[in-house]
Amino acid sequence: MADKDPSPGHSMFGLNDDEPTRQIPDSTPTQGTTQSGAPQYVYVQQPPQPAAGGGKMLQWLVAALAVLAVVNLALLLVGRSQFNDFATKQADSINLLTRRMDSSDERYAQLRGQFQVTSEKLGLTQTELQRAHELAQQVQQQQQTAVKQLNQAIAQKASAQDVNKLQAESNEKIGGLSTDLQGTKQDLANTKSEFTNALTGTKGELNGAIARTHDELVQLAHKSDRDYFEFSLPRKKAQQKVGTVTVELEKTDTKRNVFSVNLSFDDKVTERSNKAVMEPLYFYMQGAPTALEMVVQKLGKDTISGYISAPKGFFPSAANVLQSRPGA
Predict the structure, then answer these.
(1) Which tens digit of pLDDT belongs to each residue from 253-265?
(2) What is the pTM of this model?
(3) What are phi and psi of 43, to 5 degrees?
């Protein structure tokens, strides 16, 4: 193709310059011509458009995750609260069992004196049993000796008078040993009976019934060989005298269902702390054949009420539950 002829006029107006190729910013192909006359296509890529509804879907997903997180947090808090309540109840139960075990240990220590007497009697019984065995062996030996002597006398053809005399002597010796043996058996029987009665009485004291209400206390007083005295302390530091015992309220804990009191008797003060409701509290007083028992039936804020059990007639001047209500 021939070159264009340059001329001053064309140079003046820029007609001699080559025309640059233009790009049209459109998404559709644009057709142009080059110097050779061939068509030329230029493609321009448009930016991607967001899908319709994508933003709303993302918002719903975020909201669902937020709701799920709130639900999980609420379930976690509820489960933690229930676990704490359960742990608290278990701890209270363990504390109550521990206090009851301590009370039982204390009660066994208080009954040690009674068992000491019984043990001494039991030792005496073992000695008497050994003596009974020795007497039985002596009786057996005497019988064997008597039979042997009789056989010898018969073999020697002794007179009937000698045989009768020898037999009478043997019977007398055997009879004396038999009497001693019978007396030993009777002593053993008496000691066994006393030992059984002591064990039965001790078992009855350890497994004694506890009255939960006033009516149950009246029924217990009718069928028991003890006296029962009710008391009620309406505030802190309140005192009430039961016979020769003074009960003073120190404090209460309604959440743990425990209380603390001071017991004054025999010219001394004994503090009993953190005792549970319906937990027997035992103590000994001078001159009392058995232990006294205190039970708190009801507990409130700075108030308790219950009863004290004492051996029959130990407080002769105090009105027991049957005397205070004769018609009960």
Answers:
(1) 999 999 999 999 9
(2) 0.41
(3) -105, 130
